[in-house]
Structure formats: C-alpha cells, structure tokens
Specification:
Layout (H helix, E strand, L loop, with lengths): L15 H32 L16 H30 L6 E8 L2 E6 L4 E3 L1 E5 L3 E8 L4 E5 L4 E5 L5 E6 L4 E7 L12 E6 L1 H9 L7 H11 L25 E3 L5 E3 L2 H9 L22 H13 L32
Parallel strand pairs: 1-5, 4-10
Antiparallel strand pairs: 1-2, 2-3, 5-8, 6-7, 6-9, 9-10, 11-12
Helix pairs in contact: 1-2, 4-6, 5-6
Bound molecules: dinuclear copper ion.
Length: 339
C-alpha cells in the first residue's frame, strides 16, 4: 500500500504490515504523550504564573497515590511495547520449514547469490511470490547487511560465520536491496534489486537460466578434488573420519562430551578449524582448510553435505526443483555458531 504521503516504504512481505503496525503504535504513543506533556506544561506555566513580585507559593507535599499510579501506567505501556515487539521479532527471525534456500556471499562491494538449483546472480535476486525464501549468508571480507526495506527485514552478513534470514514476498514487483552496514568506500553503491515474480514466470526464469552446476554438485566435485573422500567418504569409506550421510541437522556426539547440532555453522567450523569440535571416536588428524577454500567453495561443500540424506528420506533442498512445496529441510536453529 502506497499512501499519499509515503510514510513507509512499499509493503511487500508477510511481516511488513506487522512491523508497520508496531511502528505506528510506538509513534502514536509517543505523539500522544508529547502533546499531553507539552500541553500540560504550557497550561501550568500560564495557570500558575507568578502574579505579584512578593508572592510565595503554597508548599506542595508529595502524593504516594499519584506516584504509584504514574509508575504503574508507564510500566504497563512499556510492557505492551515489549510483548508486541517480541512477537513480531520471533515471527521474523524464526527460520521457517519448507523454504527455498538461496546462498548469499557479500563482498566489497557486491552481492553474489546462488540458488540451490545452480543459477547465479549478482546484485539481483529473483524469487517467486508466496513462497518462503531462506537466505544463508556469509561475507568474504567485512561485515555487510542484507536489507530489503519493502520486506521490513534485514540481517548482518558476517565473515567467518553464517547468518540467515527469511521472507515471503506478497506481491510481484522490483524492490530495493541495500547494504545496511558501513563497509568501506563504496558501501552506498552496494545495492541491488529483488525481483518478485509470479510462480509461473519464476519457473520460466529458472529454466531459462540453466547451465550452472548446482552448489551441491560443485561441492561433491570439490570434495573429491580436495581429497576429503579418502578419509571420510559419504558413508564412512576411508574410516578415518565420520560418515556424512544424514549428518546435517542431526545431533553430533563430541569427543569432549556433549553434543552439537550439525548446522551450517558447525559444518563450516569443522572444515576451517577441524579440531574445535571433534566427533566422538575420531582423532585430531584432519588438517585445516582455512585459506584453501573460498567462501563460495565452503558454501558448495556445505550444500553437498546437506544433500547427503539417508536413502528414503526427504529430498534435500539442493536437488529438488524449486516449485515443489514439499521441499523440507531439517532447519536447525539460526545458524550463528561463533567462530
Ligand atoms: Cu556492504 Cu555496506
């Protein structure tokens, strides 16, 4: 909805009206008390002005009743803001099931995106309307921030870890994509466009842009090239490292005791810093791949590992055609392993 006075940007996602409603509430409360307080102030200045040069005002004693009422009312108002804000926040940042996954790599000063079906884009993201899209994001250099004002959602893109965000666009169109974290000289030029299409048009776009290998396939090739498979093949061939089939999204027992969820952050850490969280039953023999693989390649390796599901289970995200709504991913909690 574009109003006559553009108070808010275009509203084009399932959460944008919720964010707007909260903001209007906050603005309304602020406006109400601004008027109330300044009005009262002006009224008192006039009503209780000093009328003669020698006037001595009557002393005022405190009122516990007034103090109590005026503590409880602001408390209740503040709590409504808190509760409402938390509700919207959780709506916005809880990763959804059945989302289409898109990998995002930020670098000075561009956005590189790749669909699970292989299509690559730069500073553009094509998505279908009415489908949940989950972005798995990392940076090659400094902190960036993926921000689509029309969707009312943004998330930092941080080197050395994965962050995620999701959205579901509600109407076709083209929307601004901004970098919302100062990242150097051309930060203000690090922009792009999110193109929301009808599902049919999106399918046409996808099929008209084939030819690129899927990240999972590229990851599989890389897995061979780097020699990973000689120690731990997908099913544990090699025997020196744990098997990978079914690992993603599962609970992994660690040599140090305890468990960890094998999410994107854990997979990444296990490649660049293998000794950090050793799997129970295996020695600290894996060399680090820090500096030997690019962020793009790490994403590919991760896509490959994610695609290794035990036979008979849900199709992994990386290989299913995009429109199938049955594409379930064992979405772990937000992948924010600190590394
Ligand atoms: Cu990237 Cu600012």
């Amino acid at each position: 909805m574009q109003s006559w006075i553009p108070l808010v940007p275009d509203s084009a996602s399932t959460v944008s009206w919720k964010v707007d409603a909260l903001y209007f509430y906050l603005s309304g409360v602020t406006l109400f008390f601004t008027l109330l307080i300044s009005g009262t102030l002006i009224f008192f200045v006039i009503r209780y002005r000093r009328r003669t040069p020698y006037e001595i005002p009557r002393p005022v004693a405190g009122s516990h009743k007034l103090e109590t009422v005026w503590t409880i009312i602001p408390f209740i108002i503040a709590m409504t803001m808190f509760a409402w804000g938390v509700t919207v926040y959780f709506d916005q940042y809880k990763p959804p099931q059945n989302a289409i996954e898109v990998y995002v790599v930020g670098k000075q000063w561009m956005w590189k995106l790749q669909h699970a079906t292989g299509q690559r884009e730069i500073n553009e993201l094509h998505v279908p309307v009415g489908r949940k899209i989950r972005l798995i994001m990392t940076s090659e250099d400094v902190i960036h921030d993926f921000f689509v004002p029309a969707f009312r959602t943004k998330a930092d893109v941080v080197p050395g870890r994965y962050t995620t965000m999701w959205f579901e666009a509600t109407k076709p169109g083209q929307y601004h994509l901004f970098c919302a974290e100062y990242c150097g000289m051309n930060h203000s030029g690090m922009t792009g466009t999110v193109i929301v299409m009808e599902p049919r048009d999106f399918d046409n776009w996808l099929s008209g842009n084939t030819g690129s290998t899927t990240p999972a396939t590229a990851g599989q090739q890389l897995y061979q090239t780097l020699g990973c498979a000689s120690c731990h093949g997908a099913n544990g061939e090699g025997g020196r490292g744990p098997a990978l089939v079914g690992t993603f999204g599962s609970q992994v027992n660690l040599a140090s005791g305890g468990t960890v969820t094998a999410d994107e952050g854990y997979i990444r850490e296990s490649i660049v810093n293998p000794q950090a969280k050793l799997v129970a039953g295996f020695g600290p023999i894996m060399p680090t791949f820090q500096g030997q693989v690019t962020e793009d390649q790490l994403v590919q390796l991760m896509a490959y590992i994610k695609s290794l599901h035990p036979p008979g289970t849900q199709t992994p995200a990386a290989t299913a055609p995009s429109p199938s709504p049955s594409r379930a991913v064992n979405a772990p909690s937000p992948t924010q392993n600190i590394k």
